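To whoever is on call:

I kicked off a structure prediction for a single chain this morning and the downstream step that reads the tokens threw a length-mismatch warning. I double-checked the sequence; it's 306 residues and nothing unusual in it as far as I can see. Pasting both halves so you can look.
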Amino acid sequence: MITAGDPSVATIQLMHSGAGVGLAELTRDSLGTFFADEFLGGKRFANALSEPASGNRFLNPQQEALPGEGGWLLDGAKRFVSGSEIADYLLVNALVGDEPTFFGVPLPDASVSVIPIWDTLGLRATRSQLLAFNQTLLRASHRGRAPRPGDFVVIPAGLPAISLGIADAALAALAGHARTRIILGKPLSHQQWVQHAVADAQTRLAAAHALFQQALRQADGGDPAFFGNLARSKYLANKVAVEVAQLGVRIGGANGFLKASPIQRHLRDAEAGQLMAYSTGADAGSADAGGADAGGADADRRGSRR
């Protein structure tokens, strides 16, 4: 429901929740209670996991942190960090002794800077920035374990809803346009091809919603099949959202390309969803446990105004 209103807000909220809950869980044996209290107290969290060369494999960092006083020092970059400019803590990963290792990094930190390469147009309303790390201390006291099966996977459980909300909004927009657009004295919605195409899109969208709800029920019930079905739900939701948005462009015609029309925004948002890890080019059934900041393809319906 939040995504249908503004996908950027929903994406930032999802990434914040995933980073906060994830950091508390991964540091359960050390500072987990502290991070949980900070999260519940309203502090903001962001994922800094994706590297320029990591692609979908964001849980397998290539950048090595070297031993330093009090922990390890990281030089490198993390991309698609949604909400980074307002974050109080980052969830960061790096190689420590050739093992993927996860840390909480408090902000502000003078060694962490934003590389100003983005503007606020297009898909940028989530402000998914590229961060540079210059001898950033990854504190031994803030070290956590690697994700493992059984963890509470907030982001994989939320990503399908991003695309489903976009698809719901796109379907409502194209239906509204078809009802009010008069062609040869009759609403466009009276044309048979429009009715058939919308019925097909609505049916596929309902199927995507059903698969997502099944995966959530499996997760609540402890069925280990839930994670694979969440990955498949994201894949199907991404595809359906693009199909519905493209149908909106067909029905909207040239008017759909106008900045004032929601149709063009829904199309950008839908295309963005399938670029989020795991992207639809990856195997939908082979996702790693855990979740990454997918904000590099942020859904944005208001970016052109910011």
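Update from on-call: the warning came from a stale cache, not from the record. Cleared it. Sanity check on the structure: The longest strand covers residues 71-81.
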